[in-house]
Amino acid sequence: MPLIRIKSLPFAGDVEVNVALGILSQAIADATLIPQQHIMIVWEYIPAGHFVHGGQLANQQPSNSHPVLVDMVAPNFNTEAQIAAMLELIASSLSRTLPIAQNNIFINYTPAYSDGVYDDGHVVEWES
Q1: Residues 41-65: what's their mean pLDDT?
Q2: Alpha helix positions (H), 7-125
């Protein structure tokens, strides 16, 4: 774990989201020493015309409005500094690899609790 869910409007033109996700996964693994087999990242597109920001409707992903929306679920034993570092890492990696400004990324962290996650065929328990 972590689980990272990303949503955006469709990009104009060819944007290699799959490459960006691979780079992000490797960056998280390198920074946190979490094996990649425990890092999950999914990207979903919001249908054109289904995202209003600042009162404006958009059909494609702008660089500086209609933020890319990221939810990160990670164990609650991480410190505030570790969570902040992961949030910064996600934002910087996405902005370096995609046509999106770093200040146009919104990330929300949700803590996962011991005995509150089912993974690899069982309920996961960790010591806090």
Answers
A1: 95
A2: 17-32, 80-97
Query: How, if at all, do strands 105-112 and 68-75 pair?
Result: parallel
The dihedrals phi and psi of 7, each to the nearest 5 degrees, come to: -130, 140
Domains and CATH numbers, the chain: 3-61+75-110 (3.30.429.10)
β strands within the chain, DSSP E: 3-8, 40-45, 52-53, 56-57, 68-75, 105-112, 117-119, 122-124
**Helix/strand/coil for 35:** coil
- Does the pTM exceed 0.85? yes
Task: Name the residue among 108, 10, 28, 127 with its Cα closest to residue 66.
Answer: 10
CA distances from 18 to 22, 41, 70, 94 (A): 6, 10, 16, 11
**pLDDT, tens only, 7-31:** 999 999 899 999 999 999 999 999 9
Whole-angstrom distance, CA of residue 32 vs CA of residue 37: 13
